[in-house]
Amino acid sequence: GIFDTYEKMMKENVILAKNSTFIGYCDDMLALMEICDLYVNPERLGGGFSIIEAFEKGVPGVYLRTGDVYTAGGEEFSVRDFDEMKQMIVKYKENKEFYQMMSEKARQRAKLMTSSLKAIKDLDEKIVEKVEKEFW
């Protein structure tokens, strides 16, 4: 996806730079998720379906509470800010039981979101919430 500030962020965080790779746009997310441990989504455009593809493969995610990824992935994998994101990434890396639990929850979320009727209802609820919050 689009992430114009990746290089700047890597210069500011050497540890993250050593432990992450930005691949840009990917045509086959399911294949990519076969070699990934964690789906990290900073503030950027797009990504709503890619989080579900990651979840389908049992790859948990961490993302901010905004945008397409948050809407598709749900509250449970979200964080308030980049400081909490850093803490959560470390937790995924160091706590294998937590990782396994969240991996299973990711698979369950993928099943939920790929069930057409339920996904449409969830999306409709999110749209209504957003419209009510911003316009009423």
What is the H-and-E element order? Answer: HHHEHEHEHHH
CATH class: Alpha Beta
DSSP summary: helix tally: 8
Oligomer: single chain
CATH architectural designation: 3-Layer(aba) Sandwich
Number of domains: 1
CATH topology: Rossmann fold
Overall geometry comes to globular
In words, what does this structure look like?
With 136 residues, the protein is mainly alpha-helical. The chain has one domain: 3-Layer(aba) Sandwich (Rossmann fold). 62% of the residues lie in helices and 7% in strands. A three-stranded parallel beta sheet has the order 1-2-3. Strand 2, helix 5 and strand 3 form a beta-alpha-beta unit. Helix 4 packs across helix 7. The longest helix has 20 residues. The protein is globular and about 40 Å long. It starts with 5 loop residues before the first helix and ends with a helix. The model has no long low-confidence stretch (mean pLDDT 87).
Which key phrases capture this entry?
mainly alpha; Rossmann fold; 8 helices
How is the topology of this model organized?
Blueprint (H helix, E strand, L loop, with lengths): L5 H7 L1 H5 L10 H5 L5 E3 L6 H9 L4 E4 L2 H7 L4 E2 L2 H13 L1 H19 L1 H20 L1
Parallel strand pairs: 1-2, 2-3
Helix pairs in contact: 4-5, 4-7
Outline of this structure?
The chain is mainly alpha-helical and 136 residues long. Helices cover 62% and strands 7% of the residues. Strands 1-2-3 form a three-stranded parallel β-sheet.
